[in-house]
Structure formats: C-alpha cells, structure tokens
Design goal:
This protein is α/β, with parallel strands linked by helices. Helices cover 21% and strands 24% of the residues. It has helices at 38-47, 69-83, 97-100, 106-112, 141-152, 182-189; strands at residues 3-5, 11-13, 15-20, 56-59, 91-94, 117-121, 124-128, 159-163, 194-199, 206-210, 213-217, 249-255, 262-268.
Length: 272
C-alpha cells in the first residue's frame, strides 16, 4: 500500500470501493424474470470478493417507482434489509428519480437521511449530489451554492470524486439522460485538477470527458438499456435466457495514488 501527499498535506493511500446502481427493487416484468434474485446475487458476489472494499456506494434508483407512498416505503424497507447482508458495513446511499422524484425525497430521507453530503476517505474528498429530488431534473441553486462553498475549502490539486444519479452532462436529453443545470456543477468543478464523476441512471457502461473531468456510468442490477439514441424508445433490452445476466453487474474502483487516475473493473452479477 503506497502513500503520498497533496499540497494540503493530506496523506493519500491506495484503496478500492464498489459501486452498485439502479437495483430498482420492486420491479417486475419480462426484462428481468429474476427481478427478486439479482440484487441478492450481487450482494453475494461482493461478499465473496477476495479482499473486501473499503466501502460500497449505491448510486440511486434503489427501488422502482410507485405512486403509492405506502408501497414506496415497503420497498425501501425491503431494500434496506437485503443490503444489510453486505459484509462491508460502510455503505453510502443516494436516491434516484425512482426513489425521490414523486415526493421530493421525503420517503428516501426517512430511511437513509440526507440526499446530498460529503465524506473523506484516505485523502480523497467524496461529494454526493442530488439531481433527482427536483422533478425537473435539476440540482438547484441552493445545492449548487452548497457545492461551491464545499469546493472553496479544497486545494486546487485535491482528489475529488463526485457521485450522482443522472449524468451531469447532456448525454441524451431526449431520454432524460442529462441534468438541466449540470453544466453549472461542472463549471464549479473545473478549477480542480483531479475530479472524477461516477453516476448511474442509464443502465450501461459509458465513459465521457468534459475537459479534464472523467464521467463513468455504471451498469444496472435489474435490466440493461440501449445505447443513447440507438433505437426510437428507451425500452429495456430483452432478457436473454441463454445469457441471463448479460449487461448487468457492479464495479470496483481502485484509487492508486501514483497517478490521478482511477482504475475501473466491471464485474458481472453472476458467472456462467
């Protein structure tokens, strides 16, 4: 385990964490006939890792949307119980629009607390942004001001990782794959030399650069979605009984401090 220090004198150590996204607990339908099985399988896969991660982060859409507030809380209760089986006890959560879009995050906050926050781990500053509680798909001025104040405290070469649900850039706005004021967040992040963004929402792996800032999306744990604009509608890819978990998986992220880049490893939910 190597270590180094940035200009603020913070010690930087190698470590890795796991990103899981878009579990959509409560979904039922042809795109995943094993809808109640894939999340437990993913948890078993993470628990079976040779070395456990420092922490785990779920980047939104923990549950599938419902108009019934009672059913929404039932799904959140079930989800929380299932993920309590993770051997790694440091787990971070954030909402997706399926969790928070219909009630501005009220039910989500009852179970998981704040929808945006920061934490620090081994010399890296992590920022969780909420671009889903606003039904208009915006971060909002209040949260942007909060972000600006947080970034003002950091050195220009600080290691920064941002978690968000929707992409901050305009990936494909026609399919709601964008954040209306995401450009404002990116502008606030641009003065910092070492920024990486991880998000979910689009149910597939995607890599994009805005200047020197890398944006990486995660696969879903429920069903895969088509590439941006590759078909007329944003409908899930058909379940393949010959390869039943194709397109689903979770991600390991290793922070290796000999350079500012993060190494990504995409892992399947089930092998074979």
């Amino acid at each position: 385990w190597a270590s180094a220090a940035n200009s603020s004198g913070n010690t930087l150590e190698n470590f890795f964490f796991v990103q899981l996204s878009d579990t959509h607990w409560g979904f039922e339908g042809a795109p995943n006939p094993d809808a109640r099985g894939t999340l437990p399988k993913a948890i078993a896969a993470v628990n079976a890792l040779e070395q456990l991660p420092d922490f785990i982060v779920f980047t939104g859409d923990l549950t599938h949307t419902t108009d019934d507030p009672q059913e929404r809380r039932k799904r959140l209760t079930e989800f929380k119980k299932i993920v309590s089986e993770l051997k790694v006890k440091q787990v971070y959560f954030m909402p997706g629009e399926h969790d928070a879009g219909l009630d501005q995050g009220a039910a989500y906050q009852e179970f998981f607390g704040k929808t945006h926050y920061t934490f620090d781990h081994k010399g890296v500053h992590f920022i969780v942004l909420d671009n889903v509680s606003d039904p208009g798909a915006s971060i909002g001025e209040e949260q942007l001001n909060w972000l600006a104040a947080d970034l003002d405290k950091l050195a220009p070469d600080a290691r920064i990782v941002v978690f968000t649900h929707r992409p901050l850039f305009d990936l494909y706005p026609q399919w709601d794959w964008a954040t209306r004021d995401g450009a404002k967040a990116i502008a606030l992040l641009m003065p910092h030399a070492n920024v990486t963004v991880f998000y979910g929402h689009i149910h597939q792996e995607n890599h994009h650069m805005t200047g020197h800032i890398a944006h990486h999306s995660a696969k879903s744990l429920i069903f895969a979605l088509p590439a941006p604009g590759s078909q007329p509608k944003r409908t899930p890819l058909v379940w393949d009984s010959a390869q039943p978990y194709r397109g689903l998986g979770f991600r390991e992220i290793a922070a290796i401090q000999k350079n500012p880049e993060l190494n990504l490893t995409e892992l399947p939910i089930a092998k074979g």
